[in-house]
Amino acid sequence: MCHDHNALPPEPPETGKQASSEDLLLTSLDGTPYAASIARPAQIGTAQVIIFPDAKGLRQFYKDLAFRFAEQGILALTLDYYARSAGPGPRDETFDPRPHMGQLQRESFLDDVRSAIACLNKEAGTQARRTFTVGFCAGGALSLLTGTSDVAVDGVIGFYGTVNMPLYQGEAGSIAGQAQRTHVPVLALYGDADEYVPVSTIKEYEQGLEAAGIEQEVIIYPGVPHSFFDRRATAFAHDSEDAWRRVLAFIKAHSTGE
Question: Measured between alpha carbons, how far is residue 14 from residues 117, 130, 135 in Å?
């Protein structure tokens, strides 16, 4: 269901720009330490992103992806959200997320996001930037759900977010059913051959956003499966290229007004 441990982020439109990265141990607002990784562009632009990994947690794919964003001039931080039940990450190939995914709680997760935003804002100093979340699979759903919260973000992006199921402990119903609570722009990317997220639920989510009057793009690539955003998936390289262009255009449009 998730990216495996050999997955590689596809190349963005421009590479080779200078960036640096560092592993961090951050502290959530409730005092819980959790693993993260930050990637800094040589020259910081007007946007910053927080990356939510898939259900397998913080791994090298997401650290590399943060670096790719930094090459585009976007300050990027990726985090692990299992610290309360599994201790600080990152996670290796032996990690089993199943006992931990069901223990995820809304406010604890959002506390992690708020502390991650504070970390990015500290990097910025007095320079104002817009904040976006980007997530994959379960992390894609978490990104879309962040757009229904009071966390200060300017847009949310989800790759194959599992909107057909609940994520937080004790909550019922699908995420698609919560779409009308969204209050920030949305970019959601799927394939119509996704074996885990039915097109009917994707359409339900899109219709909920439309009913709420939310600025949104819900993209469904024909013949494309779950976890297509992987450099090794050469059959879907064109779709990954298009996804990169849409993500960067979405961030630019909502951070510069272009």
Answer: 26, 21, 21
Residue 107 CA, chain-centre distance (Å), reads: 17
The DSSP output letter for 178 is G
| C-alpha–C-alpha distance, residues 35 and 30, integer Å | 15
Evaluate if pTM is beyond 0.90: yes
Burial class from Cβ neighbours inside 10 Å (0-12, 13-18, 19+) for residue 252 reads middle
Reported as a pLDDT band with limits 50, 70 and 90, residue 127 is confident
In sequence order, what are the residues at sequence separation of 6 or more whose Cβ sits closer than 8 angstroms to the Cβ of residue 255?
A: 45, 46, 47, 129, 130, 132, 154
Distance of CA 104 to the CA centre of its chain: 16
Query: Which burial class, exposed, middle or buried, applies to 224 when counting CB atoms under 10 A from its CB (0-12, 13-18, 19+)?
Result: buried
Tell me which range, 9-13, 83-87, 120-124, is most confidently predicted by mean pLDDT: 83-87
DSSP-H helix ranges across the chain: 60-71, 83-86, 98-101, 106-124, 138-146, 199-212, 237-256
Cis omega (within 30 of 0) for bond into 90: yes
In this prediction, residues 126-138 reach a mean pLDDT of 89
β 75-79/47-52 pair status? parallel
> Quick one: fold of 19-256?
Rossmann fold (3.40.50)
139: amino acid identity, one letter: G
Does residue 90 or residue 55 have the better pLDDT? 55
